[in-house]
Amino acid sequence: MRHLMSPLDFTTEELEQLMDLADDIQGNTQKYSQSCNGKKLATCFYEPSTRTRLSFEAAMLNLGGSVLGFSSADSSSAAKGESVSDTIRVISCYADICAMRHPKEGAPLVASLHSSIPVINAGDGGHQHPTQTLTDLYTIRSLKGEIGNMTIGLCGDLKFGRTVHSLINALVRYPNIKFVLISPEELRVPEYIREDVLEKNGIEYVEIEKLEDAMPELDILYMTRVQRERFFNEEDYLRMKDFYILTNEKMLLAKDDMMVLHPLPRVNEISVEVDDDPRAAYFKQAQNGVYIRMALILTLLEVGVC
Ligand code: NCD
């Protein structure tokens, strides 16, 4: 039995297979519509979510399975003091696979150690968000034809943004990737990412503050929101929240084929006027999340196509 805690739980070859499967699902949805008949996905979300939870549920429903779960800690027995390990032992009796989001780093990992069904980390605190990374890699591959040989700008809250941490972890395994890390001083990527991931793997990167300076050289711009819920005080959040706003004017500085990604939700960091730019790919990215999660569920459940 396999769990998914980090994008590194899959080799790059396995990721290619997963993305090939997602491509096939996208082109032949009907073929997969009964693949998970009789199977149940539990979504255990102790933190807010729109895309991740609903795309997981849509994925399972598209596969002919069913879904159950909770969407906030308040509506689960966590509010009564139940531990994650007890909860997952019980959920293991009700479902075949579980996607879990939790504000505490490592909580889905703890769950996986006490689970008799596959557990998927659907975001743990400011740590990792592997299924967003699968979505991001799949979107990059669909847009650019390959993953590698590109300069990627990551912009915004690089300190608390778990999508950024997971994506960097995953991308360092691909050839000739250069990062431009664009953030205010206070929101730089954590030291462990710089030292243990980027430097250890000999990856070229620069850290800068001004988005405009980076724009002309980027092949991908990955925008992120400032993670309000992880700030220690509201004052700091208010000071940081509008640090970056991508506008049509700034888009003029970019290459004609520079694609803009964002895990969403967006707050102010991408002006809505950019949505009409053909290089804005974030809504397509959200749609891709369903196909790659369908591929992931099939893979972890070891289900063949009916
Ligand atoms: C992200 C998350 O939850 O980390 N959202 C998502 O799953 N698409 C990004 C965010 O909340 O900023």
Describe, in plain words, how this protein is organized in 3D.
The chain has 306 residues and is an alpha/beta fold. The chain has 2 domains: 7-128 and 288-301, Aspartate/ornithine carbamoyltransferase (Rossmann fold, 3-Layer(aba) Sandwich), CATH 3.40.50; 130-285, Aspartate/ornithine carbamoyltransferase (Rossmann fold), CATH 3.40.50. It has helices at 12-27, 51-62, 84-94, 107-113, 130-144, 162-171, 191-199, 211-214, 234-240, 248-251, 282-300; strands at 40-45, 66-70, 97-102, 119-124, 150-155, 177-182, 204-208, 220-223, 259-261. The strands form 2 sheets. A 5-stranded parallel beta sheet has the order 7-6-5-8-9. Strands 2-1-3-4 form a 4-stranded parallel beta sheet, sandwiched between helices. Strand 1 (40-45), helix 2 (51-62) and strand 2 (66-70) form a beta-alpha-beta unit. Helix 2 packs across helix 11 and helix 5 (130-144) crosses helix 11. It is globular, with a radius of gyration of 19 Å. It starts with 11 loop residues before the first helix and ends in a 6-residue tail after the last helix. The model has no long low-confidence stretch (mean pLDDT 96). The site of N-carbamoyl-L-aspartate (NCD) has 12 residues, from helix 2 and helix 6.
